[in-house]
Description:
The structure holds two protein chains of two kinds.
Chain A: H1 11-21, H2 24-63, E1 68-71, E2 77-78, H3 80-87, E3 94-104, E4 107-114, H4 131-139, E5 143-147, H5 148-154, E6 161-166, E7 169-179, E8 192-196, H6 197-203, E9 209-210, E10 212-215, H7 219-228, E11 234-237, H8 239-281, H9 283-291, H10 296-340, H11 353-380, H12 389-418, H13 423-460, H14 462-473, H15 475-513, E12 518-521, H16 538-543, E13 548-560, E14 565-572, E15 583-585, H17 588-596, E16 601-604, H18 605-611, E17 618-623, E18 626-636, E19 646-649, H19 650-656, E20 664-669, H20 675-686, E21 693-696, H21 697-711, H22 713-740, H23 742-750, H24 755-796, H25 809-833, H26 837-843
Parallel strand pairs in A: 4-8, 5-7, 14-19, 16-18
Antiparallel strand pairs in A: 1-10, 1-11, 2-9, 3-4, 3-10, 5-8, 6-7, 12-20, 12-21, 13-14, 13-20, 15-18, 16-19, 17-18
Helix pairs in contact in A: 2-8, 2-10, 2-11, 2-22, 8-11, 8-15, 8-22, 10-11, 12-13, 13-14, 13-15, 13-24, 14-15, 14-24, 15-21, 15-22, 15-24, 15-25, 22-25, 23-26, 24-25
Chain B: H1 4-14, H2 26-37, E1 67-78, E2 83-94, E3 110-120, E4 125-134, E5 141-144, E6 149-152, E7 155-159, E8 165-170, E9 174-182, E10 187-188, E11 194-196, E12 204-221, E13 224-239, E14 247-257, E15 262-270, E16 280-284, E17 290-294, E18 299-307, E19 313-321, E20 329-333, E21 339-341, E22 345-355, E23 358-368
Antiparallel strand pairs in B: 1-2, 1-13, 2-3, 3-4, 5-6, 6-7, 7-8, 8-9, 9-12, 10-12, 11-12, 12-13, 14-15, 14-23, 15-16, 16-17, 18-19, 19-20, 20-22, 21-22, 22-23
Amino acid sequence: MPPRAAPRLPRWRLASLRWLGRHPWQLGLALAGITLGVAVMVAVDLATGSARRAFDLSMQQVTGDASHRIVGAPTGLNEDFFRRLRLELGVRSSAPVVEGFAEAGGETLRVLGVDPLAPVGPAPRLADVEGAALEALLTEPDTALLAGVTARRLGLGPGEPLPLSIAGSSREARLLGLIEPATGPPAAVDGLLVVDIATAQEWFDRLGRLDAIDLELTAARAEALRAELPPGLVLEGADTRRRQAEQMTSAFRTNLRAMGLLALVIGVFLIYNTMTFSVLQRRRLLGTLRALGVTRGQLVGQIVAETLLLGAVGTALGLAAGTLLAQGLVGLVTRTINDLYFVLTVSGLFPSAADLARGAAIGLGAALLGALGPALEAAGAPPDSAGRRSVIEHRGRRLAPWLALFGIGLLAAAAGLLQVPGIGAGFAALFGLILGAACLMPAALLLLVPPLARALHRLAGPLAALATRGVATALSRTGPAVIALAIALSAIVGVEVMITSFRTTVEAWLGRTLSADLYVTAPQRVAARHFAPLPDDVPRRVAAVDGVAAVSTGWRVLVEGPAADVPLQVLDPAPAGLAGLRFKSGDPATARQRFRAGAAVLVSEPWSVHHEVGPGDSVTLRTDRGPREFPVAGVYHDYNTDRGVVLMHRDLFERWWDDRRVSAVGVYADEDARLDALTERVRSAVAASGPVLIRNSAAIRERSLEVFDRTFAITGVLRTLALGVAFVGVLTALLALQLERGRELAILRATGATPGQVRVVVLVQTGVLGLLAGLFALPLGLALAEVLIDVINQRAFGWSIVTHVPWATPPKTLALAVAAALLAGLWPAWRAGRVEPAAALREE
Amino acid sequence: MRRTGIIALLALLLSGCGDERAPVGGEGVGGLSAALGGDPDPGFARATEIRPFAFPHDHGAHPAFRNEWWYVTGNLDDGAGRRYGFQLTLFRIGLAPGRAQRASAWATHQVWMGHLALTDVAGGRFHAAERFARGGDLGLAGAARDPVRIWLEDWRLERGEDGDWQIAAATDTFALELALRPQKPPVPQGERGLSRKSDEPGNASYYYSLPRLAVDGAIRVAGERRPVRGHAWLDREWSTSALGAGQVGWDWFALQLDDGRDLMVYRLRRRDGATDPHSAGSLIGPDGVKTALDHRDVAIEVLERWTSPRGTTYPARWRLDAPGLDGPLTVVPVLPDQELDLSVRYWEGAVDVLRDGEPVGRGYVELAGYAED
């Protein structure tokens, strides 16, 4: 008797698996699809998640165990209140905070001024700093502790001088020691420079003032303290800042996530493609298996198991690749956050298990989703006809109209979703639009191919027509390929049109708004939106300069509103200065007049959208004299910040706030003044007041657009990756198609076609495929752009954007489509030319 | 004879900062010895020669010296027959000599530390708290002369024009609100106020005591306010010097006898357990006249020991004898656990004084340098 075999897979399962093993390139492309799809999605998740965790980590280090925070008027709070807090109100668990930013070695450092003796806040966490160092921190000016990770990067050690640039002035700090977080990764303190509160006050010109007071309070004590606070001071929970940061960046993060998801959707098509092909290729094997008694369920199970195996390997590879990719993306994400929202000095990658797990689950899920159709296809066929190709194609053609009907339904649903408010619904509509359009494509292929074939017949002869018709005959193969390519291309068109429109709109807005010739500002503390005040006498000095016709002044402060802080833009316009304002609602003339008279404020479009406030409404702000309602006269277009601002005339502001500071002075030159000479005169007029920055409006426009382009750099990267995924898809589909149609090509060869002619047939076919995909992508892409501009962007950021389709977009898209398809068709064409007619025919 | 101030602050600085920090580890002790053995900044003044005290001027701060403290301890009774001990200490530590010449009101060379304790004998509880604050013009903590006022946030020790003192200090669990009336004039300790700690010149402090103050006021404990009366002792000392070589700690006794006399003795302990010859004391008559005692005059015998829940063993009952005491005294803590588990762990508590088993007085004892921290 033969030895008892160990339990093993049934032979039929082995046969199925062996088939995959004999087609390594097929396996490789399927893997590449899943890997790329998962990688892009995971990378986006990790990068945005890391930025959020970086914020959390740095907050934890900076606020320590504080539960609450007292913040004050725009100018901060008087330090005398801190003494009152400790001596009279008996709130011990409190820590004063003076914060600022400094540049060192090309990096932005977050400077945190603390009282090392405070029982809460970051001070108790300054572990590993020696006694003498802490003593020196308290007693010696300009001494500091720097995050260990930052010091090592800058090549600095304790005892060494650290040259800093603060608000345009140079300072030299002396490093006393390094900060290593007691818990958490060392990168959590990246960019943190801790100084004594006295040093911080001196560095940031905050003598007598504090930025905030951190507190550790029970809810009951917090309530009691709230009642004791003098007007102008606000007690907020420690999570408020985190929540604000979340809100500020949520639109940005959602957009990135959608891009990642798009890559995955394309990946699903790819898997579908691959698995369909593997099923079709094995049709004889599968039919035989059915005839031998393998049940449908077993076959479905087999295909699903194979897919899971493929999916698992591809997902694992995707997770690894995604983590690598995220290393690069996180820098882009952090830079955008720094450009647009707030300073984030921590930029490391903090992978979270949850992000990776979600990526894995979605990857496997996508693989299964892609395999479901093919598996049912294989199982659904009767035993003997599973092998017959024509059955499948026949079924595919029969299915196409129904699919189109379903697609129309999806499109209708998407249109309905557009009416539902919220950014989530907007994205759902976007995906509905994509899927609906995808469902229409097979039917469209069937409709478009015959006339196209006729046209090509007249133009290029019967071979070209034959090749073209092949696109429709092999619908089950060509459909997914066209869809994958079309979706990728439409995403590119949509995003490109959106960005171009946005940029064009912003450019026009900059041209209108930057109406002054020169702008004098305090050197910005950092690249982000922190506005440093100018020395007091600068506006007066500038106005007195010879050749200056008029000046305007601006000041940006955060004041307390009913729900959250309200960014208030305080403007003292020049006589012609309001002409650049374009109103979205409200009568322009009345609005300008009421604004000038100090009778009303204006709100920017994003603010109006986020707070649902328009002309006739009012905005309640906490002034230095208590809360006050300000009527809104109009809503104007503004692309400065997606949080939006409230615009208030200087006169009105000074009536209610004791804040006379100015962060920018706009200089309107006399008509005959020469700008470079005027710049020099302004420079020398304010030289005695301290360092200022003088730029002409062209330089500011340039710099603004630079930031704009940088913001969309990450979008560009994701766009390219999506195209990469699609390209792999087209390649797979074409390879599959040509391999499968070996018999057809062999007949061609047998009937006298040369290898060259066969190759031309294949290339024409792929070119037609690409052309069709490009034709489908154009309208879909423009529709996507409209949704992105009018729905997503409007809901997420609140900006009106004028759609602007670059003339080059349609030809470029078509060219890209055909080129990608031809490129993918090169190898299949070369293979097709080598077909041995006799062998290929015998095979059938 | 209170050096806990220096030690606690150094511990604080060596271990990072914070109120609720665990005591420093073994490494910190090495650093502490090194720091104490090192030379203080030569910019600080030294207690090198005898100088007459001038009051109320000398009740204020002496920032030319590195360390200074105001140390009040006392025994109290309430109307319901319950017994209490209390301690309020305000330490000033100069991190650098001179004034901070800077624009910010937070800039300072002075750090303040406060210890506040209450022994609730009837309740069987000992409460202790610690806090830190910086000096500086902002006024979180400091000392003023006219009128005399020493404060660390809302812990205050103030002296009125009439020479009476006021204490106001509270934590979440207990509070003191006391008026203290001196019963005797200030007594300069050591050699007319110069208290030498070792043979090295300048290794000394200026030291005087208000040995007996009548206390009237109220405390808050166990959630209720209780009127109290009793007696307190105020110690004042400022110096720049550090521990003498080989000295590891001290036992300090301040006993107020019912016959109107007050006794202060401190025993400096050497590493080998022997008594350092610089140990000293004084016996103050009801009229305030002082008789100096040196280490040969005083005999202290430990009768019992007690190990704290935190693992340190302290002497817990003594026989104490000195010339003129009319027989040896037995000193017994009113509660065994009066260990302050703060930045630096030490024992400071209320005691009963017995002679032949009969109560003859009350007092306070400080035991420093026992804890392995």
